[in-house]
Amino acid sequence: MAVASRLDTGLAFTNVLLPTLAKGVIVRRSGVTALAEKVQADALAVATVKRFRARYGPEPLRLRVTGRSIALVLDASDAARLLADSPEPFRLDTVEKRAALDHFQPHGVLISSGEERAARRRFNERVLHPDKIDAEGIVRDEVDLLLRHARSTGALTWDAFARAWWRAARRIVLGSGARDDHEVTDLLRQLRGNANWAYLHPKRKRLRERFEARLREHVERGEAGSIAGLGDPDEVVGQAPHWLFAFDAAGIVTMRALAIGGEGHAGIWESARLWPTTPVILRESTEPTDWHGTWLPAGTTFIVFAPYFHRDRDRLPYADEYAPRIWPLPAEPGIVPFSGGPGACPGRDLVLVAGGTALEVLRPHLEVPVLRAPLPATLNHFGLSFVTRK
Ligand code: HEM
């Protein structure tokens, strides 16, 4: 198995991993995201990984990092194996994820292991079900109001969209009593801001306690029609920080889907393929694993850089186009906007319903698409704005 030269290890960090980190993994930083769009940072990242594959071959590429075993995955079949064989022997709760997510969701399924993880996963799968909550009705309500506002100003901006989206998210997760409680999601945003820095930022215990107390008030109402009404309050309080956090990604994906004229579930899927909101999927091996005859030690961190698998023009003729026809089951195993296997996103169907409904309500009233092929490698959602139709 190839080991990257020092220079290439450096390039893996400067061109691929650091720009992703700088944009903000847990909450996006608007200034850096705008800059990333300007320089089309993802184009350079994808080109860099492609060069590695041409130079070193398809096997996972070991990076030269002292004291750690880190491998960059270069072949879609290896990415598929990692996801299929999670959480054993490829755990989801890697060192990096624990360091980041512990700031705001210490009981989240994504950073849990063993029996605890299995129980939390089952709970997520049970309650995150579009048939159990009227996500469609809630989104329709909030987006109708948003549309009225947009028509009065002549434009739909990201800021206005995000306000409406958060109202919908709080209603879906916590119930109508939380609709206007900006503070609960603002507190979460502050904690997520610290989580961007993972272990470099001290934990703010008091801030987390304030957030959790406020969250618990809503959860204990157990409002019918919300996810909080579907489970034991302690379990909900443990998982809801992730749900609220993840609705941010769902809003970003929805707004970008509008920009390409996306429709229905395939519109949401395509937006998430073209601009994955989890660009770096990590796994860590719990035992030595055999990669085409070479053994990598237990504790190896595997990096699946999704944009490389989603946007490689040499392998995918539709890489830079809106290609709804490839869904729901893309032939290419490396296309994984919602991850895959036993650790795949349990909120996916809810996202497809919520986002798809927003597209259906908004699309006929806006001048879309505003982007055409070849679609940009990096798209700053903060800068998106649509003119309303007369
Ligand atoms: C566009 C929106 C979304 C995208 C693209 C997305 C994508 C993903 C991805 C790629 C993962 C796997 C992470 C990993 O393997 O490390 C994941 C995990 C997860 N997602 Fe989502 N997600 C979205 C929205 C949501 C929403 C709205 C919810 C809940 C309401 C949710 C709940 C979860 C949970 C609980 C996990 C952890 C699963 C586990 O550890 O087994 N996601 N998501």
UniProtKB/TrEMBL annotation:
One family name in Pfam for this protein: p450
InterPro entries, A to Z: Cyt_P450, Cyt_P450_sf
One MF annotation (Gene Ontology) recorded for this entry: monooxygenase activity
Domain of life from the UniProt record: Bacteria
The protein, known as: Cytochrome P450
Organism: Saccharothrix syringae (Nocardiopsis syringae)
